[in-house]
Specification:
182 residues, Rossmann fold, 5-stranded parallel beta sheet, globular, 55% helix, alpha/beta
Length: 182
């Protein structure tokens, strides 16, 4: 059965890395990165909020189409709005696909450190974008961590994974276990 997997977590927790790994290991799985879609919109920086709404709309359509083709979709996205999560679940149901809501958890200090490291490396343009659009620096980042932490108890059907700092392989194995892959 096809799957729509939401990897939800604070910035820099490893969502995109795990999604990339999952797509590499599962033929034709679609790593649907909404931040990448947003970057494809012309002049998106002039109105990042509107660009985000448009990117999510495009992502919903793409997810549905890909699930209908019989292939998995993995969405690495910080999602604190329940409506977004419920829309993904509905898309999965419409395509007769499983919906997996996975929370990636880590301590705030680790997230702040990784956010700074990835911004400094600038290996992925979306990481630079995230740094540029984050208001209030580390305080803003920790506010996201707090908003995310407040969401977790509201989602009883979601599965939480404690990230293993510095060990993406171990964290990925935990993901596969909760998905029933191994």
């Amino acid at each position: 059965m096809t799957r729509l997997i939401l990897l939800n977590g604070a910035p820099a927790v490893g969502k995109s890395t795990l999604a990339r790994r999952y797509a590499e290991d599962h033929p034709f799985a679609f790593r649907l990165d909404i931040d990448q879609i947003r970057r494809m919109l012309g002049r998106w920086r002039e109105d990042p909020n509107r660009a985000g709404v448009l990117a999510r709309s495009l992502a919903f359509a793409a997810a549905g189409a890909h699930l209908e083709s019989g292939h998995d979709v993995v969405v690495p996205q910080l999602a604190v709005r329940i409506e977004f999560i419920e829309r993904l679940a509905a898309i999965a149901a419409e395509a007769d696909a499983e919906f997996h809501e996975v929370f990636l958890l880590d301590e705030g200090a680790n997230i702040v450190r990784r956010f700074a490291e990835r911004t400094e490396l600038a290996a992925d343009p979306t990481h630079v974008d995230a740094h540029e659009t984050l208001a209030e620096g580390n305080a803003g980042l920790l506010a996201y961590v707090d908003r995310f932490a407040a969401l977790v108890p509201q989602r009883p059907d979601a599965v939480s994974i404690e990230c293993v700092p510095g060990d993406i392989d171990a964290t990925y194995q935990r993901l596969l276990e909760v998905l029933g892959d191994r």
